[in-house]
Amino acid sequence: MGAVIVSEIRGLSVRQPWSWAICAGVKRTENRTWTTQVRGTIAIHASTSAQVVNNALRSGEKELPTKDWFTFGAIIGLADIVDIASYGPQHEHDPFAEGPYCWTMANGRFLHEPIPLKGKLNLFKIAPELQEQLRGAETTVIDLDSDPVAAAVAQAMTPEPDPVQSYLELFQEMMATGNHQEAMSITSERLLALAPDESDGYLLRGLMRLQDPSERSP
Fold first, then answer.
1. CA 194, 200, 204, 206: dihedral to nearest 10 degrees?
2. Residue 4: pLDDT band by 50, 70, 90 thresholds?
3. Confidence at residue 93, expressed as pLDDT on a 0 to 100 scale
4. For the residues 163-167, what does the mean pLDDT come to?
5. Which ranges constitute the DSSP H helices of 137-183?
6. Phi, psi at 27, each rounded to 5°
7. Average pLDDT value for residue range 179-188
8. Across the chain, how many H-helices and E-strands are there?
């Protein structure tokens, strides 16, 4: 069954500063352990957890503004789900892509006024009256070229792509859950190509051969 564009707006709760980054159009990939057939506009909810922001501020590794610069516990904007795929070669140069499932997001925009709301798991349903409010809400798109503070935040939170680590995490997730077997052959080949000495690549290739008799060596 293919993707489904639903008429209702559902919500996705994301921790700060990543929820801000999606609405700012900086983070175009949201990583999840699960997939959905839903496509189209969703509400981006900033969860109440400040753990990621606080950890970054304490460590000094990311030059983020104070915690109060971010909004928590509210719908802060909208974005569109345009595609979902297991992590693969097409994601290797995306600094935010990790997988196991990479949700490609587009058209991030902020509500002029955040809407306080308690978040839920998965793509959660939103009351019809709130959906109507979201459809008619005024939104704004951040121009990083004219907003030096936002540009500095975007630069500070953008990591270096690490495809080897992402493939290793995909492999470990598959070993723990049995999910994403369709991506395993690509994962093993890419691990061996990107990191020839990475033992997990050989382990994964052996595991695939044990699971598929046609791949077994004499």
1. 110
2. low
3. 95
4. 89
5. 148-157, 163-177
6. -100, 105
7. 76
8. 7, 8
User: What's the whole-model pTM score?
Assistant: 0.86
Give the phi and the psi of residue 97 in degrees, each rounded to 5: -80, 130
Q: Sign of the C-alpha dihedral, residues 206, 211, 217, 218?
A: positive
Q: Strand pairing of 10-14 and 38-46? A: parallel
Does residue 94 contact residue 68 with C-beta atoms inside 8 Å? Answer: no
- Tokens linked to 145: 């070229």
Distance, in Å, from the CA atom of 156 to the CA atom of 151, rounded to the nearest integer, reads 9
The predicted-structure confidence for 45-60, as pLDDT tens digits, reads as follows 999 988 888 887 777 6
The CA–CA distances, whole Å, from 160 to 63, 92, 93, 155, 164 equal 16, 10, 9, 11, 12
The half-sphere exposure of 22 on its side-chain side, counting CA atoms within 13 A, is 28
The pLDDT of residue 115: 95
Compute CA distances 202 → 139, 164, 187, whole Å: 49, 14, 11
